[in-house]
Amino acid sequence: MRDGRKDKGLDEEKKNTWPSRFRQDNGTPIVFSAGESWGRAEDVQRADIEKQFDRLALLPGHSLFGQFSDNNSNNPDSVDGAFSASLERMDRTGINDDSDSEEEGEEFGFTQTNQQDWFPHGSRTMFMLDLLDNLPRLRLSNDHLKAIIWVMRECKTPDVPAFSALRKKQIKSKHHTSSLGNHFYMNHPAKLLALDWANPLVRPFIHIYPEVSGPISEFWQADKWTSEIGLDELFPMWADWENKAASHRHFFVNELARQYDGTYVVPVRWITVENVVHADVHDVKIIRRPEVEYSPNYEMPHPLREKARGRPMFRLHIMPWSDDVSGNVSKQYNAHTNMYVTNFNLPHQKLAQEYFVRFASTSPHASSSELFVALGDDFIPGTWHDGYDCEIEEEILFEIIPHVLPADNPQQSETASHIGMAGNLGCRKDLNGGLKAYQETDEGYEAFYNVRIFFYLHPKNSVFNLLQPGEPCDKEVTVQTIRWQVWNACGGNKATGIKDKISQYWIQRTLEMGKGFRAIQITDPQTRDQRLNTLKGEDRKIVKDEISRQIQLDLWNWVIQQPPESIDPHRDTPAEILHTYLLENNKYVWHDTTKQWDAKKEEIFAARLAASSISGLSIPPPRPRYVVQYKNSLIGKHFKMLQQLGVFHIHDLCTRLLFSLWKATGELGAHLWYPEINNMEQYLADLKVLVANLLDIWGLIDPERILVKGKLHVFPHLPEDIPRFGLAILYATEIYECFNAVFRLCSIFSNHLAPSRDIAATLADMEHFKHVASGGWWKNLEGTYIRAGSLVRSFLTSNRELQRRLGWSKTRPLVCGTVKPESSAKRGSNSWEKALGSTFGLTEPAPTGASWASCKSLITQSGDSCKPGSWVFFQRPEAIGRISKILARDRNGKILTQSSNAIVVVDLFVVLDIKDQRLNMPILIQSSGTQTSLVKPRELLFEFNAQHDCVTCKCSTAAVPVLQERIVTDRTELHTRHSSQPRFILNMHGLHNVHHIRDVLLRALTRCSVHELVFIEVRQ
Fold first, then answer.
1. Is the pLDDT of residue 489 over 60?
2. Are the C-beta atoms of residues 899 and 886 closer than 8 Å to each other?
């Protein structure tokens, strides 16, 4: 028989020489063949592996893919020995081979059709494996993927790649060494943001020009973007992109431009007004002047035109965010410093999705200041980055400008080179504070409740001449103070309030190096300046001083590096509501309230909280038993829920002052979560009153709290931050805190020897996969821009499961007034009388005689999905009510979901002209006249939340059996029973649609005023 392994007809011979198998009693395989089998050695090895896997107890439990990772493969406590041995055998037999040999490529080759439709993956199999390897919240280790590939090969799955072929698709991160000698890797913002321009799912949402009209809801509508930013930091040009024939004509600012009417203007900046691009221009008139009077105010053509070379030029504003994060899922802390960036030219609705989070870097060694220095390489003024705009189908240049620096307060202090809240000058934004003795004076204490205040300066500290009392912190003063500290090679001084983390390192280095240089050049007789060996007295002192000054100058030139920046860390570190409000103020309020509770009070509060209505709040069920059981371990979502519901249930569970504090907390919280501001002047007037109320009540409860908890002093800066940057929710960091879960999974599966590199590479690969799957464009080796095949591009847009796992939500237009029917088993189809019931007595709308089916929800004008039981405002004189039924016409079994074929039965309520004195909220009572009305679905405005007035209506509690595993037990717990009296409180602490509520109610019901309790205490 010929040796088939050397014959060119190997494939045909393989088909005819598969061995027949039998097994002995002990399980040993018996192989029959006509002579030597071509695959005998491979079969024996495969049988040995199968025998090893048969012995594993893990396989029947299906937990194999959740047990192992590269980083602990040698740890006997975490990896089963048999599995490790099997993996080693897989490595030896080639099943687990990392090499990409030619033979392997031929065996698992790709067809021409696959290469086109599934490009660049080559096949559906390769695409699906790459997908599995890049799901953010379902991380797989190398062992997982190797095992999956091995199983697919054993199942004869076509086009299975080698493991290394899959890994070759990763992109590289850049290595950095900080000035402190720490090593880390970074995915630079320029590369990440270039993906946005080339991504067809992202590019349509990039807002290029500042918006100067309409309500404020986005970054580009706030004062910093529209008023403060210099013209050289705005977008430098415009072109008519919709007109392909004219899109090559680029109109730069500060250049002469001709209008259609023949007149000439000089554009100063490009803006949008109601989504239409406009230009602020200087009119040009032809006048006669002597040549000597010409002034080169404008450089024409624009200097950027030469750099552009015909390419469009844009500017992107970003938000860098850094925080200390644990790399472990367990409670054992594994310190890392993370850096993320956000494209501020995208709307907030998109930035709230995980898909748009851009991970830049992490390091267990480097501080955020060191990461910022590396990040700043992309922000250097005049640095333009290449990109491809998939919308206009052209190469572009773009510049990156940092816009705002949100973080928790310690991180913001470090960013601003501030000593922190424990310092004498504890505010990073102003010069508030002073020595302890001054803080305890009336003037010093009152200063904490205000901004731009005076503070006490010790006359001995001459550096304070740089700082003028009553002024906010100034970036130039801070830089000068850091230079002063380095120049004198001294330690940080708490009295200045300035302590730059990196400068502290260099201060110590300069002290050590200066000491060494002085020893060599002044002290050591063998090496010192020869003049010192002969001179004495005053002449010797002059030479020593000269040498010392030269050493100082050399060290100064060596250490000082201050690149220009376009951001002020003092003014551009706004109060971040997650860390400053939810996790600080709300936590203080909750702790002070519950620390004196006994088990009975906890049970009462849990029963009341369980009876709360959450309709119109957009929050999950509150889980009250969990809240009281783990009251000292709550997180942000719990405090956000308590902020909206807690005040309704604690009237007799806390002191009068604490109850007032709950009211002040809820009122201010609702203002901070505004999604849109129509009247900024009125909003700020209310905001200042609410901040003052909160701080005044804290002062009555615990006067020292604001001295030891400096975050309370951040609140007076809110009226400055919000007009400059926009809504507080725009720079909230919940989405980053959520993404930290993805980071931790990547950290767990890193090798822990080079965590910064491994994690950066893993997350860069996720960005790569998202870009390819989204239909993004990239440049190939020939310089042509290409994108993935049609089947790859359509997979994400048509597959909701992948959309959910990548954190991308497609905006689907909601048609106002449309209804959603109940399931066929529940909706029924009845006449008007039967569908409505006998208790209403309402006339059927024309045309009559139709069949009516029950519906589960409808869409309001604001886009809310309302159900029976939802509270709504609607366009009728009655204005307010609660949905009782939603009905739609049934035409031969087909439910007509349009608004014209549906009707809403609403229980009518009225809003009293006076507010509830206890809660300071509007009161709802049932209408005394017509109590039920028919409303067309398209007339409903928006949904809101209302709570039953249990105190006035004297609702009771009773013991009810406890359910465990859906089984009724003998144990009981308290349950609130609402009375039938229809009196409700309109929840003004609710965050959902709070701006709409305040727009439709009378100003007398929404105007913020000083709390009565504060008035009483002041009078006393």
1. no
2. no
Q: CA 725, 729, 733, 739 torsion: positive or negative?
A: negative
* Listed residue (874, 928, 929) closest to 906, CA to CA: 874
Reported confidence tier of residue 178, pLDDT bands at 50, 70, 90:
confident
Cα separation, 445 vs 833, in Å, equals 69
pLDDT at residue number 950: 94
Sign of the alpha-carbon torsion through 116, 122, 123, 128:
negative
Percentage of the chain modeled with pLDDT above 90? 39
Cα 969 from Cα 568, distance rounded (Å): 62
Distance CA 125, CA 108 (A): 11
CA dihedral 102, 104, 108, 109 (to 10 degrees): 0
The pTM for the full model equals 0.76
Compute the C-alpha angle 892/896/900, nearest 5°: 130
Token representation of residue 728: 């507080």
Going by pLDDT thresholds of 50, 70 and 90, the confidence category of residue 777 is: very high
Q: Is the CA virtual torsion 61, 63, 65, 69 positive or negative?
A: negative
DSSP H or E segment with residue 1005? helix 1003-1006
Structure tokens that stand for 551 in this block: 């050493």
Q: What is the DSSP string of 534-590?
A: T--HHHHHHHHHHHHHHHHHHHHHHH------S--TTTT-PPPHIIIIIIIIIHHHH
User: pLDDT at residue 590 above 80?
Assistant: yes
**Sign of the C-alpha dihedral computed for residues 422, 423, 428 and 433 taken in this order:** positive
CA distance 771 to 790: 14
> Encoding tokens for residue 608?
């009341």
Concatenating the DSSP letter of every residue in 402-463 gives E------HHHHHHHTTB--TTSSS--SSB-----HHHHTSHHHHHHTTSSS------TT-GG
Of 539, 519, 536, residue with least CA distance to 528: 519
Mind listing the pLDDT tens digit for each residue in 437-446?
766 777 777 7
Rounded CA gap, 385 and 193, in Å?
Answer: 10
Domains assigned to the chain: 56-167 (no CATH), 205-313 (no CATH), 417-559 (no CATH), 813-911+922-944 (2.30.30)
pLDDT reported for residue 70 = 39
